[in-house]
Amino acid sequence: MSTRLAPLAGIRVLDLTRVLAGPWCTQNLADLGAEVIKIERPGSGDDTRGWGPPYLRDEAGNNTSEAAYYMAANRNKKSVTVDMATPEGAELIRDLALRSDIVVENFKVGGLAKYGLDYESLKAINPRLIYCSVTGFGQTGPYAPRPGYDFMIQAMGGLMSVTGEKDDMPGGGPQKAGVAVADLMTGMYATVGILAALRERDRSGLGQHVDMALLDCQVAMMANQNMNYLTSGKAPQRAGNAHPNLVPYQVFATSDGHIIVAVGNDSQFRNFCRVAECTELAEDPRFMTNPQRVMNREALIPVLADIMLTRSCATWLEQLEAVGVPAGPINTLDQVHDNPQVLARGMKITMPHPTAGQATLVGSPIRLSDTPVEYRNAPPMLGEHTEEVLRDVLGLDAAQIAKFTG
User: Which of 3, 103, 276, 400 has the most beta carbons within 10 angstroms of its beta carbon?
Assistant: First the structure.
């Protein structure tokens, strides 16, 4: 067993976030060993605690108070209930910030200044503090004051313009992703920005403000679609499950279902044609190279679609895997979590939980050879660690603690 400490051991994070983008970031930091103190409103806490059903169930199959949504993003944290709207509560949070390395917040721009919990106020008492703000549109620009939510950001940032079936097809029109990808990607970018600021602090001894915007992150994550537009001047359109730059790279119907075929190069296309017994297509000048296949997509895909209907999913998957052509089934989540590869990689974990007995969660995808992620505690109950943190971090006595817990 490694004697090396977790990567972020000794780092304290003051988490003033709720819902998804901010908590996703702070869960990453917690998984990497940071002590994350999650500040929540007394009585209600993080909004997502009430975003159910479904709820975590106890050993008898009864619902607990913990919504599944909340459970997705709050592992390895400590929950402290404090009312920052009171002078005493705001002062307590400032005391925690003085003893922290990182603050992450997702209030509206300027929303924490009235409590003395904005970056400039906390920087004055803790110049080493790394302060990350997560908002819809960032700290600057004409939209900065606006609230921002994942769904609208997927629309504004271009994702919904390229997601979904073509407008003239059944079911066509704008379509959001099945999970809150703008929130999740912002949480990931925020994690990277915080770690970069932490590394820079090793040199300068000073913290800084990390300004993260959902819209910025949504625009950035458009990746090749951005460049498709910037190089051609033509905005990409919805293409269903087809790829704008690769052919064939899409869903195909088989005799008993659907599979993905993801041909990434010309060699794979030739192998595909050999398995599909249509080698003449690989020798056709219209289809020999990927650029030619992209340009002649409308001629090629109907022919391949008819061929794919002649065999079952299992047959295609076995035969394509044998020749190195990427292909895969379209799994539902029950199939995902029973998949032998997912199980072998430890993506489903079980942790003790104070009311449910056990909580089944999704593990971190980060694999570090010598300092692996440690699962210390399940997403906390509301206020579960208030007394512990006030005592051990702030050094308050029983009478002082009672003012906040009584």
Answer: 103
The answer on pLDDT for 239 being more than 90 is: no
Helix (H) and strand (E) counts for the chain?
A: 17, 13
pLDDT for 168: 85
Contact 100, 82 (CB under 8 A): no
Alpha-carbon distance values, 3 to 219, 274, 301, 304 (Å): 42, 52, 56, 55
| Residue 241 confidence (pLDDT) above 60 | yes
Q: What's the residue count for the chain?
A: 406
How many C-beta neighbours within 10 Å does residue 9 have? 13
Query: Model pTM?
Result: 0.92
Residue 1, pLDDT above cutoff 80? no
Angle at which helices 181-204 and 21-31 cross, to 10°: 50
Strands 258-262 and 249-253, by their bridges, are antiparallel
pLDDT band at 169 (very low <50, low <70, confident <90, very high): confident
Q: Does the annotation mark 31 as catalytic? A: no
